[in-house]
TrEMBL record:
<keyword id="KW-1133">Transmembrane helix</keyword>
<feature type="transmembrane region" description="Helical">
    <location>
        <begin position="12"/>
        <end position="34"/>
    </location>
</feature>
<dbReference type="GO" id="GO:0000139">
    <property type="term" value="C:Golgi membrane"/>
</dbReference>
<keyword id="KW-0808">Transferase</keyword>
<keyword id="KW-0735">Signal-anchor</keyword>
<comment type="similarity">
    <text>Belongs to the methyltransferase superfamily.</text>
</comment>
<dbReference type="Pfam" id="PF03141">
    <property type="entry name" value="Methyltransf_29"/>
</dbReference>
<protein>
    <recommendedName>
        <fullName>Methyltransferase</fullName>
        <ecNumber>2.1.1.-</ecNumber>
    </recommendedName>
</protein>
<keyword id="KW-0812">Transmembrane</keyword>
<dbReference type="GO" id="GO:0005802">
    <property type="term" value="C:trans-Golgi network"/>
</dbReference>
<keyword id="KW-0333">Golgi apparatus</keyword>
<keyword id="KW-0489">Methyltransferase</keyword>
<keyword id="KW-0325">Glycoprotein</keyword>
<dbReference type="GO" id="GO:0032259">
    <property type="term" value="P:methylation"/>
</dbReference>
<dbReference type="GO" id="GO:0005768">
    <property type="term" value="C:endosome"/>
</dbReference>
<keyword id="KW-0472">Membrane</keyword>
<dbReference type="InterPro" id="IPR029063">
    <property type="entry name" value="SAM-dependent_MTases_sf"/>
</dbReference>
């Protein structure tokens, strides 16, 4: 009897199981059909709103018009036809506009002119889309991306051989690994930054923006990030042609650039710290012209770090395989120029020296005048796009303001009124309009996040604001998961990039003739 009951129960359970499975199959089939139809609750709400002519007032006064004047961003499409751009040939995978290596070799080598931007004439422009490398995949999320880059995304192995003993980069299977080393810090950027932090207030928000000249694969900037310091790194497109691409694939701010004959595309008094780690820049040449250009972009009270030759040449000249007389003269010129710029050496240890730019402008100006220093005559030290670099010294502040602008520590400075605005140096922008701009962009970004739910999830690391204005879009997005390249077009009605830097963010001037390559940024917005 017991066996019969057990068999009967088994048949009952089997029938129930079949019924449940059949029911679930029907349910998911119907669910899939409903989803495929594209008509759900959100669609029904939209239909009802359309029928009732309801006004869309989720966020009032949401304005998507461009910020700058001069006609930029205004397109008359009344007689235009939509044009689809085809992909370029695969041979253009590494093509970087204005940085074509074959064309560059036709320009003078003096003062690195051939490594600067040289754009092609109108008739030679490409009108196609630069293709990604074969097998390109989504980069790893930060912070894993700091240490690993998929090989397919930047398939160049030369640096793994050339810089093997310096721990720049290693090839492991289908990825590159970045141990964090550099020419001057083969044991790792972290230890090197710890040494700098024993002299420079890196960890308390005083230093927020940094400039790394000749950055390599930007490990210095990569390891500064966890200390809430954001570095603008640049390096030329040279024999290490993939170094900036590696930096961006790692999720580190970087651009192709060089100290040559043209001023750097950054405003005056932008950076809290500037850095050169064996960057091979001849700092003492041309009457210290390159040091004077760094001085222009260095904020009063800011720091300049020089690691490598000729620092401590008496001990290292044999290892560097350079004549001691040559190194001695090189350091003499650097020390002499630093004194003219009112930079005080605050540390020299091993192969690293640190100078601090004086905050007292009155005393500095008097000393410079007594030394016969030539001051730059340009009325606007931020007007730098394709302007020749000069051997003159940029005055501490504008004639419109006798005070040397000072900024608050980060993150307080992110929403504090920038000194340029507070002192009335940006026409048409007041403290009140600045606060209103922030208010509006917080609303916009809140709306963007609802449209694109993964905007601040870590999926996007490198973001570009193609028309940054006061940087309020980037400020509203502020997060350890991402960074924003704030681009201020050279045709903008107001020069606002200086205020962006005073908020503790980074950016660059550009005329949008061409901008690097299509793989550098994951998310772009024209605001």
């Amino acid at each position: 009897m017991a066996n019969k009951l057990t068999a009967g129960d088994s048949r009952t359970r089997s029938s129930v199981s079949i019924f449940i499975v059949a029911g679930l199959c029907c349910f998911f089939y119907l669910l899939g059909a409903w989803q495929r139809s594209g008509f759900g609750k959100g669609d029904s709400i939209a239909v009802e709103m359309t029928k009732s002519n309801a006004a869309c007032n989720v966020i009032p006064n949401l304005n998507f018009e461009t910020h700058h004047g001069g006609g930029a961003g205004m397109i008359d499409d009344s007689n235009s036809n939509v044009k689809a751009f085809e992909p370029c040939d695969a041979k253009y995978t590494d093509y970087t506009p204005c940085q074509d290596q074959a064309r560059a070799m036709k320009f003078p080598r003096e003062n690195m002119n051939y490594r600067e931007r040289h754009c092609v004439p109108e008739e030679e422009k490409l009108h196609c889309l630069i293709p990604a490398p074969n097998g390109y995949v989504t980069p790893f999320r930060w912070p894993k991306s700091r240490d690993y880059v998929p090989y397919a995304n930047a398939p160049y192995k030369s640096l793994t051989v050339e810089k093997a003993i310096q721990n720049w980069i290693q090839y492991e299977g289908n990825v590159f690994r970045f141990p964090g080393g550099g020419t001057q810090f083969p044991q790792g950027a972290d230890k090197y930054i710890d040494q700098l932090a024993s002299v420079i207030p890196i960890d308390n928000g005083t230093v927020r923006t940094a400039l790394d000249t000749g950055c390599g694969v930007a490990s210095w900037g990569a390891y500064l990030w966890k200390r809430k310091v954001i570095a603008m790194s640049f390096a030329p497109r040279d024999s290490h042609e993939a170094q900036v691409q590696f930096a961006l694939e790692r999720g580190v701010p970087a651009v192709i650039g060089v100290l040559g004959t043209i001023k750097m595309p950054y405003p005056a008094r932008a950076f809290d710290m500037a850095h050169c780690s064996r960057c091979l820049i001849p700092w003492g040449s041309n009457d210290g012209m390159y040091m004077k250009e760094v001085d222009r972009v260095l904020r009063p009270g800011g720091f300049w770090v020089l690691s490598g030759p000729p620092i401590n040449w008496k001990t290292n000249f044999k290892a560097w395989q350079r004549p001691r007389e040559e190194l001695e003269e090189e350091q003499r010129k650097i020390e002499e120029t630093a004194k003219l710029l009112c930079w005080k050496k605050i540390s020299e240890k091993a192969e690293t020296a640190i100078w601090q730019k004086r905050l007292d402008s009155d005393t500095c100006r008097a000393e410079q005048e007594n030394s016969g220093v030539e001051f730059c005559k340009a009325s606007d030290p931020d007007d730098v796009w394709y302007k020749k670099m000069e051997g003159c010294v940029t005055p501490y502040s504008s004639e419109k303001s006798e005070e040397v602008p000072n900024v608050k520590p980060f993150p307080e400075r992110l929403y504090a009124v920038p000194p340029r605005i507070e002192n009335g140096l940006i026409p048409g922008v007041s403290a009140e309009s600045y606060r209103e701009d922030n208010k509006q962009w917080k609303k916009h970004v809140s709306y963007y996040k609802r449209i694109n739910s993964i905007l601040d999830s870590g999926r996007y690391r490198n973001i570009m604001d193609m028309n940054a204005g006061l940087g309020s879009f980037a400020a509203a997005l502020e997060s350890p998961k991402l960074w924003v390249m704030n681009v201020v077009p050279t045709i903008a009605e107001k020069s606002t990039l200086g205020a962006v830097y005073e908020r503790g963010m980074i950016g660059i001037y550009h005329d949008w003739y061409y901008f690097c390559s299509s793989l550098l940024f994951e998310y772009c917005t024209l605001t």
